[in-house]
Amino acid sequence: MISIALMGASGRMGSAINRYILQCDSIRINQAIVRRSNRYFEQLLDNTSVICRESLTPNSDVVVDFTGPEMTMANLKFCQEHHMAMVIGTTGLSEQDIIQIHKASADIAIVFAANTSVAVNLTYLLASLAAKVMPDADVEIIEAHHHHKKDAPSGTALAIGQHIVETKKQALDDVAVYSRHGNDCLRQQGDIGFSTIRGGDIAGEHTAMFIGEGERVEITQRAITRDTFAQGAVKAAEWVAQQKPGLYGMLDVLGLKSLEAFIKSKQ
Ligand SMILES: NC(=O)c1ccc[n+]([C@@H]2O[C@H](COP(=O)([O-])OP(=O)(O)OC[C@H]3O[C@@H](n4cnc5c(N)ncnc54)[C@H](OP(=O)(O)O)[C@@H]3O)[C@@H](O)[C@H]2O)c1
Hints:
The mean pLDDT is 96. The radius of gyration is 19 Å and the shape is globular. It has a seven-stranded parallel β-sheet, sandwiched between helices. β10 and β11 form a beta hairpin. Helix content is 36%, strand content 24%. The chain has nine helices and twelve strands. α1 (12-21) crosses α7, α2 runs parallel beside α3 and α4 (118-133) runs parallel beside α9 (257-265). The longest helix has 16 residues, at 118-133. The chain is of the alpha/beta class. The chain binds NADP nicotinamide-adenine-dinucleotide phosphate. The site of NADP nicotinamide-adenine-dinucleotide phosphate (NAP) has 24 residues, from α1 and α2.
């Protein structure tokens, strides 16, 4: 039985992960962490006998963290010191934070995934394939999320862009266009345009368009509920508990990493 420390247990993702784990036999939550100011502090996590605490202790197999950058980076340090595996789903991390995650992965196994949905990770793979087959197509990435989301474009939209540029041997900073407004927005060959929609309770939608002359391919994933991210996060936690130190993504968890490497390496 794998034991999980659930960070941000009262949050939207924390709650969805708890609901999903309640249906699983091979994994259980033995720590739930919230802020002292949170209404769940020292209360029972829903439908469990786990009391929500403020501080993490080193007696879980895996720390599952969908919180905010500040908390995630504090947890990373703790996990590195205590050799605990991690699933990091928090988005909006800085470049410096990501460097720290890379460094920590020398000591502990980490699944770092801006999106833990199985379908989104299939979208990454399909986007890499489309970039290989249609290298001259104009690429546009559109994402939509609920009105609480702070960061834009979403980590997933950026990850789709990253998979495309890796296939095309480019750097995202050189080709990404994050806004268009005014009279001087002519598309340059090779640009990857990002568009953002925010509203209501949209759980998360991403479309990568590969637009050629006379035809286009659109790869779309739509999450209807957060449960899909929760299921992927639990799958990642079960997988990372068995891994050696290293930095992994959901394609590793799903056994698709070598297929992507093959697509990217093909001439
Ligand atoms: N990888 C994926 O597939 C995926 C999917 C969905 C969301 N996400 C990402 O996961 C993160 C959480 O999303 P969400 O929708 O669950 O947000 P949320 O509902 O706001 O929940 C965040 C939770 O983290 C806690 N938290 C945040 N910063 C903290 C800190 N410094 N100290 C202690 N607790 C802290 C919050 O506590 P309080 O309530 O006390 O503030 C809350 O319980 C975001 O970065 C989001 O973009 C990733």
